[in-house]
Prior knowledge:
six-stranded mixed beta sheet; elongated; four-stranded antiparallel beta sheet; 318 residues; 14 strands; Rossmann fold; 2 domains; 32% helix; alpha/beta
Amino acid sequence: MIKVSHVSKYFGNFKAVDDVSFEISTGEIVGLLGPNGAGKTTTMRMITGFWGMTSGEISIDGQNINDDIVAAKSKIGYMPESAPLYSEMIVEDYLNYLCQMHGQNPETKITYLCDTCGLREVMHKNISDLSRGYKQRVGLAHALINDPEILILDEPTSGLDPNQIEEVRSLIREIGKTRTVIISTHILQEVESICDRVIIISGGKLVADSPTNKLKEQFGEKVAINLILDGCTFADAKKIFGQFDEIASVVKRTDAFTKPTRSSVGITININGTTEIREQIFKLIVKNKWVLYEMTTVKNSLEDIFHILTQNTNGDNK
């Protein structure tokens, strides 16, 4: 278990992390989110022991990391956003070197890392010749070299193409079956697809901590209906749909939707709460003899919640 208790970090007079507290249980995959400069990387580096904290306490399995920093670090594997690799080395030689550095048996450990990280096809290539996706895999192998209980990954899919992203996500899911994993990322879909839980930091402060599937319930759920209509103007539609108490607003769509005809109009109907009124809307469209090209329901996403929680607390933190 990781326990972060009232941790703050100053750089001179600048407070990068401000009284942050949370606990992460063994076996959880947790997404650590926040805008650029929110304090995510600083928090992760304090957990790894790379940076000390100004105040507060961080413990692993009940042991304060400051009491025995070497023992604490031995339980953690850390992959920074740009994994520090020796690009002139062959992958197999690099892994062999790491095994010797960490007192691991190369014969068994390299085989394990090859299978776990999917490196068998590139073992005899120079690291400099690898794609970014395979370099990330080598960086992940480095983080796993001492078989850590905790794996901390900073932007693990940054710069990867869609196929590489899915490969690395699948790898993280598999690794997360036997370890505690903390992932810092700006890709919110990644958190929804991988993480059991979301912690959001903004302006150095913790602003949310919730199971991923409960976050929308905790911070409210918004429903909107997108329409593309013909045979009416926006003013006509706004007047007709505005009669419902359940409708908060009717606005023109600003997204780049495809217009089936030159006269069609895009509309977003924002609903109060989660009331189901599509049937009533459809009946009004039929009654007024308008043409309906599209009716889609849009619920708030993790991205919407992220904006809500961070838009007023954006700091210039690390």
